[in-house]
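Show me a record, fold above all:
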Amino acid sequence: MNEQTRYSEEDIKSMSGPQLLLLLYDEAIARLTSAEQLLEDKNYDEFDDCMGRVSRIVRYLKDILDMNYSVSGDLKRIYEYLVYDLSVIKAGKESKREEIGRILHILTELREGFDGASKQVDEQNVEEGIR
């Protein structure tokens, strides 16, 4: 998702839960990618802002977890780890620059996993509807 892409309130209200989840991941990934460039440009104020926004998104993802699923405990620990690591990167700036790529990788993997699971559920619902 391009950072210039903005969604209207109507667009967001019409999205399904999985679409909203992917939107959150896309925004976190876009902000973290921007933060990486801002750090390279030594634009520390905007870097801090981007890192803060990514942290808020990840905390929100943790807060909305449905703990009735067995995988939720693992996801909660991953999100807590990410929030901690994001704070370390934000505080360390230049000395922790290489950590951004690792966090980007984790967020991208989580996004792809949720996207794949969502598609699998959609396909299963279609198949059940055919029967």
